[in-house]
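User: Can you write out an input/output pair for a complex, sequences first and structure second?

Assistant: Here is one pair. Inputs:
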Amino acid sequence: MELLRPSSVEELDGGVFIHGGTEVVPLMQDGLLSATTLVDVRGVVPRGVNGSTIGAGTTLGELEVETGIPDALREACRLAASPQLRNMGSLGGNLLQATRCWYWRLGYNCRLHGGDRCHARDGEHREHAIFANDFCASAHPSDVAAALIALGARLRTNQRELAVEELYRLPDEGDRNTTTLGDGELILEIELPEVEASAYLKAMDRKRWSFPQVGVAVAKVGGETRIALAGVAPIPWRIARVEDLDSATPLPRTEWKLPLARALTRRALAQLG
Amino acid sequence: MARLIRTEKEVEGRFEEVWIVVEEDPLEQWPEGPREIVGKPATRKSGPERVRGEARYTADIRLAGMLQAAILRSPFAHARVKKIDLTPALALPGVRAALGPGDAHGLEEEVGYSGAAVAAVAADTFRQAQAAIDAIAIEWDELEIVLDPDEAVRREQYTADPRHYERGDVDKALARADVVVEGTYRTQSVLHNSMETHQAICEWTGDVLNVYISTQFIWGVRDAVAETLELPPDKVRVVCEFMGGGFGSKNGPDEYTFVAAELAKRTGRPVRCALTRREEHTAAGNRNATIQKIRAAAKSDGTIVAFDAEFTNAVGWSGWNAGTEGPMKMLYDVENVRTQTYGAKINTPPMKAFRAPGFVEGTFGLECIVDELAAKLDLDPLELRRRNYAVTNEGTPISSKELEECYRRAEPHWGRRHEVHSRSDAVWKRGVGMASQIWYGGGGPPSYAWVRIGSDGRATVITAMQDIGTGTRTAMAQIAAEELRLPLDMVDVALGDSSRGPYASISAGSSTLPSMGPAVRAAAADAREQIEDIAEQRGLPRDAPVHEVVDLLEDAQILGKGARGPNPTGMSVLTFGVHVVEVAVDVETGEVVVERVAAIHDVGRIINPLGASSQVEGGVIQGIGHTLSEDRLLDPETGRVLTSTLESYRMPTIADVPEIVCEFVDKPDTHLTNLGSKGLGEPPIVPVSAAIANAIRDATGAEIRELPISREEMLRALGAAKEKGRRGAPATV
C-alpha cells in the first residue's frame, strides 16, 4: 500500500482520503474498505476557525472548547466519541462516517453493501431508524452533521459548494450511497450563517463514548427555527416541528426512540427561548 | 498431623464431595480489630511495577523463535464440517503448521455455536496466520439451530438435568397468604471483558511443556493440560505472574492452550495463541441470560410464607446450570419454597462462571419481588427484610452471619431517602433502593505456602498461586509481615509458577484470600517459631527483633511451611451484605443515573481495607454495567454475536461511576481458619442490579422487569406505571 502526502488541492489524484484515521483505519481493518493508495489530506484541508468559516480539518477536540462557534456545534462535538477520538477525528471526516449498524459493520451482504435485504429490519434493530427505514434501517451516527444541518451550514469542497443537508441522500435500489460526494471530492471548509441561538441534546446509553440513540439539534437562523435529528434515519433527518415526529415509521424495537425524540426536541426548542 | 477426610468442596456455588488431606491449623485467630499491619490500608505491592510497565503479563511474553497462532471459527451456529482443506493455508508465506478438527482438543468437526473453533494455523506473524486462516477451504453442512431457551426447554434440550427443590407446602401457603405478587424477570447475557484477552504460549523444553497463560488457576491448568495431553502432571509447568483479569472466565485451559501446545509440538517452536477482542466477545464465555418466573406470598404482618419460581438459564451450547435459585433458598427464613431450574442447551456461545454466577441473576429477581411485596404490604423494605431474617442456612448453622449488623449500618444511608426524594423535580425523579447479598466465599483446603527468611532479614512468601489483579500479593505479604513482626516492605511474595512453589487454590469463588491467607499465616508462624527457638538459644528474648536473630545465619535460611486447615464441619460458610443505592430518573427520556451506592459487606476479617474497598468499587461498577448498559446481542436468525467490539458492547465509562461508599463489618468468623477471613471478589456485584431497580421503583413507581435497564426498558416501565396509575386512580368528577 502506498501513502501519499499532498500539500495542495491540485496534487490530489485519486486514492482513499484519510485525515484523523478514526474511521478509515477501523474500516480497513474490518475489510470494509480497501485501498491501494491512502492519501493523507492533512496538508490539504484547512484547519482552525476563522470567523464564520471552519476548516474541515479542525478536530472535534478543538471545536468543543471553541467559544466562537454556535452552541449546537460545540455541544455536538463535546458529546461525540471519546477524548482520544475527538483529538484525532476531523470535522469533515465526522460528516462522512459510515453507519454503526452492526450488520453493516460485520459485513452482512445488506442493502448498503449492495445486497438485497436489510438484515436489521427482520433482526436485531433496537438502535436503528424510525424514519425512512424501509429500504435500509440504519441510523446515521453523526452528531455534528445534525448540528450543522440545523444551523444551515454550507460546505465548500474541491469541486462545489453545497448546503450540508445536500451532502446526504437516502440509499435506494439504484444507488446505495448515503452521500452525494463525487469521486475525488474532498470537503475543505464549512461556512456558518449568522445564528441567533442553537442547542444540541443527545441521548446516549452511557454518559460518554456513545453514538446518539437520538440527537436533536435546533437553531434559530434568520428568524427561522430549524430542527435536525441524529440517530433516527439512514441520514441526518430534518423535521419542521415536533408534530412531524408523528409521521415516524418505527420498527417494533425502535418505537422507544419516539417518545425520546419528542422529549428531546421539546427541550431543545425550549432552550432556544 | 495430616488427616485424610471426606468433605464437601464448593467453588462458585457448585459442590462436590472429595477426599482431602488436611493439616491441623492450631493457630489461634488474632483478636478482632486492626493489627500492626493486618487490618490497615496498604497500597499495592506491585503497583509501581504495573504502572511502569515492568510487570510481565502473559500478553507481554515474547519467547525466542515464537510463532503466532490464529483460529478458524465457525460462522454458523450449528453445522458440521463436510470438507476441509488446509493445504492452501500451508502454502502461504510464513505459515509453519496447520491443524484441523480433531488435531487439538477444542477444534471440532460439529460446532454448536457461531464462533466455535474448527482449525488453527501457526505462522511467523499474527497477520500471516490470519491470512492463512482465510485461505482454508471449508465446506459446511448447516444444521438446525435453536436460539430460544424456552423452545429448548420445551424440547427438553438441556446441558444438565433440570434441578427441582422443594421445602414445605408451597401451594397451601400461596392459598392462605394475605398477599401474593408475581412477575417474570429477565436478565441478559453479558461479557467478562477482561483487559487481557484469553491467551497462552506453549513451549516444549525436552519432555516438559511450559504453559504461559493468563489464568485464574495455575494448578487447574496443569492438571487439565496433563490429563488431556496424557502427560504426567509434573511434566507440565504453568506460569502466570501477572494477570489482566478473569472474572471467572479463566478457570481452566481452553482451545487456545491446546492449539498452542499442539502447534508448538509440530513446529518445535514456542507458539502463542491469543484471542482478539472480537473472539473474546464470541468465544470466551459469558454470563448466561435468564428467565425467572417468580411468585412470592406473605402474611399481612410481613412474614414471607412462600416463594415459587421457575428459572431458565440460557446456558448456550455447553456449560453448567448455575444456581440462580440459590438466593431464594438461602436469603430469607421462608417456610415454603419451590424452585425449578432449567439449563437450556441452545446454539449460542457457552456460558462461563462470571462473578457470582447464578446469584447475581437470582438476586435481581428475588430482591425486586421482595420490594414488590413490601409495596403491597405497605411495609418499609428494610423492615420486611429484617422480619424474614434467616438465622440458619436451611437448618444448617452458619459459621458467622453479620447481615443484621449490615442492616443496622445501612440505616443512615436508607434514612437519606426523604432528603433524596425532596431533590426530585418535574423531570428528574430521585429515589433510594436496597438489596441484600448472599454468596459463598469460604474457600477451602488444600493450599500451601512457604516462608523463607535469610540473614538479610527479608522474608519471601513462596506459593504457586496466581494474583489475578485483586491485590493478592499485598494481602499475603501483610499476613506474613504481621505474623513475623516484620515491616511490610521487608516481605516479598513469589508466586505465579507451578515449578516454584507448592500447590495453591484457584482464584475463583472468592476463595483466594480465605484459602491462601491461612496457609501463609501458618507458614509465617512456623518460621517465626524457628526464629524464636534460635533467639532463645542465643540468650535473646523469644520476641527479639527478627533482624537481630537472623543476623548470624549467613547462608543458612529459615524455612517455614504452612497449610490451609479444614473448614468448620457441619456449617455453612457464607458472605453477606446490603447495598443502598440512590438514583435519578429522567421520566421523559428514560435516562437513569446512579448517584450514590453505599455497599456494606460482612466478609469476616478484613486484611487490607484499601484493597477491599477497591474490590467493592470494581464490583459495583461492573454491576452498574450489567444493570444499565451491557448487553451481548445475537442475530436472531444466525446466532452470530452482533456486539463484537467495545464500541457496540457498552461497558460503563468513568463518567458513569457514582459516589461509592464502602463499609465492612470486619468481624472475624471465629469458626473459619486462623484468620476468620472470607472472600470478597464476588459479593459486591451481587445486589447491585436489584438495588438499582428498587431505587427506580422508589423514584418513579415503575416496575423494572428486565436487564439491562436501557431507555427502552425504562420508558416501557414508566409507561406501564402511568397506565396502571390511570386505571387504578379513583374516578373523578
